[in-house]
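Illustration 12: AIG1-type G domain-containing protein.
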Amino acid sequence: MCSFSVSDVRIVLLGKNGSENSRVANTILGREAPFYSQQHSMRISAEMEERHISVINTHLVQPSFPQEVIIQEVKDCVRRSAPGPHVFVLVLQHSNFNENDRERVKYVLNLFSYQAMKHTVVLTTDEEPRGYMYMSYKSTNKAIHSLIKECGGGHLNFNTVSTGWCSEMFERTKEILKKECEEFLICDIYQDEGDEASADEDLSRSGASVRGDEKEKKDIKTGCDGGVSTTGKAKLNIVLCGNDSALKNSVSKIFRGKIIKPQKERSNVCVKKEEMIHGRQISVIELPALTQLSEEEVMHQTHSCLFLCDPGVHHFILVTPVSPPTNEDKAEMEKIKEIFYSNEHFMVLFITELTVDKSVSDFVASTESQSVVSVYGSWCSVMGLQDQRNSEQISDLFDCIESMKIKPYALLTYMRAQEKRVRHEEKLRVRDNEEEIETLSE
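Figure caption equivalent — predicted structure in C-alpha cell form:
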C-alpha cells in the first residue's frame, strides 16, 4: 500500500488561451501573479492551505508553434518542474477546441512521458453550450469529451466564485499518485542519454524517491516491447514509407503472408497491421505520403506512427519501384529524411512487379540506385511481388533487422533528431556565409 502527502505540488498548465491559463494559475495561487503572454513557460510558487504550490504556465498547445519550438519548450518546462510534475491541468474551452487540438494536446503530453495522460486533469473554463446553440458545438465538444475519457484525473469546471474545484484537483492528484504508486511523474525526456545524470541529481537534491512498476518503465525505455515469441524471435515494429501508396500496401501484405489485392484507395493516415509470421510477431505500419499532407497533418501522422510503435520503430523501410525516381519520389524521400533524420534506422527496398532477374539486379547495383541508398538509408534489398522466394527472403530480412540490434526509434530519438538537424543546418549556413565572405574579400 502506498501513501502520499501532497504538501509540495508542481502543476503544469496547458491550454490554447493564454489569458485563461493565467486566470486559472492566479486562482490556484490565490494571488495575481505576473504571468505574461509569451512563448516561454513560467514557474511561480506560493504557500496555500499548508501546501507549497508551484504552477508552471505553458503555451505549448498553440497551433502556430513549430515542432522545434515545442520540443525545446517541453525540455524547458521539464526543467522548471524538476524533479517531476505531479499533475498536468488542461485548461480548455468548449467554444474553442476541436479534434486537431485534441491530437496536439496528446502529442505534447506524450513528449513529457508516455504516462502523462494518467497524470492529467481536464479543466474547462466556459460553460458547455446548451439548448438552441448546442448542435453547432456538438462536434467540438466531442473532442473534449474524448479527451476526458483518456485522462486519469477526469474533468473539473473552473469557478472564480467557489474554488471547491481547487481542493478537488488536489484530491484527484493525490488519488492519481496513489493509483500509479508514484511520488511524482518522471518525464521520459530525462531518459535521454545526455539528461540522465541531471535527473539523478534532481532526485538526489529533492530527497524524493519514485515508487511504481519499474518493469513497466523499463519496457517503455528499452527492448522489444517485452515481446519475444516461443521461438525466441523478438517482435519487430516496421514502418513502410515512400510515395507509392499501392506499393507500400502490397509490401505490407507480403510481409504478413497475405494475398496481394488492389488497394481500394490512397490512405492519408497511418495504417497498422499485426501478424505472427515466420515464428515472429510483427507490426507493419504504412506511413502515408507526407508530401501529400499539410504541415499539421504531417506532424500528426509522424507522431501517430511513433505512438503506434511501442517501444519504438525497429526499422523504416523506404519502398521504391525498380525505375528511376520521379520528382514526386525524390520530394517524398527528402521529406522523410528531413523529418526522421536517421540513416541507421532506414533501408531502401526496391520493388519490381514480377520477379528479380538480371536486369533488375543490374538496376539496383547501378550508380543512380546506390546513390539513393547512400543518401536515404544504410542498406538495401530487392523483392519481386510475384517472386516465389519471397517467404524465405522476408524471413532473412527480419532476422537481419533483429541482428543489427539498433535501439528502436522512439519519440526521444525523434526529438534528438530534430535538434541534430537544426544544428547541422546552422553549421551549413555558417560555412556558406564564411565562404561568401572569403570570396568577396579576394
